[in-house]
Amino acid sequence: VGSEMCIRDRFRQGQREAIGRFESDLDEFLKHVQWADIGGDRCCFWRYPLEGSWNKNMGGEPADTTHNVQQFGVGASMLACYAATGRTDLLPYIDGLLNYTRHYVFTRGDIADIPESMFTLQTGTLALSFLMNYHQVFASAPDEEHRRRAAEAFDLAYMVVYRNANVTLGDSDERDRFS
């Protein structure tokens, strides 16, 4: 589908052919959405891979999952599309993914075999991009609900950064001038 910055640029530059390809890819992606109630939140997410299964070396069908970071990249791209077009049909997906993010960012972030996986860059980068884009798009929304959710997205993004930061309590090198 492309990164949200790429999508934003395509709309800004009026690249109709590229926008058409993106919207076609997005419409295909949306056909594969899954919905679930998680802790009282109506959440949407996508299976990875969208179709088929992982190959045998990667674990085959048992490795298929709905717990993946890639959907947040697509979510940020949906936000770029919404910001450029005002496509209200995207709002249930965008809001459903924010609801899912509430639960997802407190997990191990897809990497079950590494004890430190919850601190990986992969875990935070795409979710952080989605959350900050959500905040940017809806911080000045005309409706109170989306402004409230924009503030929540910012708070979740803050938590993602804080959780994934390598915190050093002491000075790692007292001989330099940095603390």
What does this protein structure show overall?
By secondary structure, this protein is mostly helical. Strand 1 and strand 2 (41-45) form a beta hairpin. It is 53% helix and 6% strand. It contains six helices and two strands; from the N terminus they run H-H-E-E-H-H-H-H. It has a two-stranded antiparallel ribbon. Helix 3 (70-85) runs antiparallel to helix 4 and helix 3 runs parallel beside helix 5 (121-138).
Radius of gyration: 18 Å
Distance between the termini: 42 Å
Q: Sheet with the most strands?
A: 2 strands, antiparallel
Describe the global form.
globular
The residue ranges in which pLDDT falls below 50 over 5 or more consecutive positions are none
For the residues shown, what is the average pLDDT? 82
Q: Name the structural class.
A: mainly alpha
- How many strand elements? 2
- Summarize the helix and strand pattern as letters: HHEEHHHH
Q: Number of DSSP helices?
A: 6
Write out the strand line-up for the largest beta sheet, numbering strands in chain order: 1-2
Q: What share of residues is helical?
A: 40-55%
Percent of residues in beta strands? 5-15%
